[in-house]
Amino acid sequence: MDLRHLRYFVAVAEERHFGRAAERLHMAQPPLSQQIRQLEAELGIELLHRTTRRVDLTEAGRAYLERARAILTDVDEAAHHARLVAAGSVGHLAIGCVGSATYSLLPALSRRLSEELPGVDFSFRGEMLAPDQVEALRTGAIDVALLRPPAADLSLTVHTLRRDRLVVAVPVDHPLARRKRLRAADLAGADLIVHSADRRSVMYDLVLGLLRDAGVEPHIRHEVGETSTLITLVAGGLGVAVVPEPVTALTLDGVAYLPLAGPDARVELAVAHRADRSEPHLERTVGIIRAAF
């Protein structure tokens, strides 16, 4: 069925007059009348009673009008939705965040995404270690990741956003808390709380590398999976922890944050997604995230 025939019929049926319907459709009356007769011939039924002054619907015409309006409404809504999809204005995305991004970046980022892409349904997963994020990207459990490189996976597209300084979280009554800044060598003999080695944390490898480069043999007291747990243990006096500076947004009584000196005392933050994903709403989201840094 030609949708033009439906639109022509609906116009005539609503105007009850070929002349007014032709004006509404911006076409001449004779071609319009011909199109309606062609429609009736295809259907094998009479839809309209015609007089010199007006047009009335037959019983079949009234039934056909109701269905024709519904079809045209569905077609128009489908076209509108398709345009929104093409513009990246609708869809669903799950975003996974490392612990430091969960506290420092996620509140402002979620507001910005909601404001700029109100038609996209966003969900967020916080406190994810980078290896877990990479696996979640592979399986589709999340669509976008804010993670700490390296993400050595050729199936991913990774854009570095910034390099965060490292700080040392220490209990406020710890001897190191009296310092203004610390070096990696100052952590010799200190009980360390680190992200889990079993879960292949990027921070675990980075922190141990910094300490060993400074000639410090790490004394690990606790390994944890979540940044919030790590800082809670510091507040409880169980040790010190090297963390990205954005973690300082997580304020707890009993914790002091001290800058860690040294040119290598930084860690990258990146946004990643699967390289084979190019949906408009995903690309717009990644663009918004990159523009925010």
From TrEMBL:
GO terms for molecular function: DNA binding; DNA-binding transcription factor activity. Residues 1-58 form the HTH lysR-type domain. Pfam families: HTH_1, LysR_substrate. The keyword Nucleotidyltransferase does not apply. Belongs to the LysR transcriptional regulatory family. PANTHER family: HCA OPERON TRANSCRIPTIONAL ACTIVATOR HCAR (PTHR30346:SF0), TRANSCRIPTIONAL DUAL REGULATOR HCAR-RELATED (PTHR30346). This is LysR family transcriptional regulator.
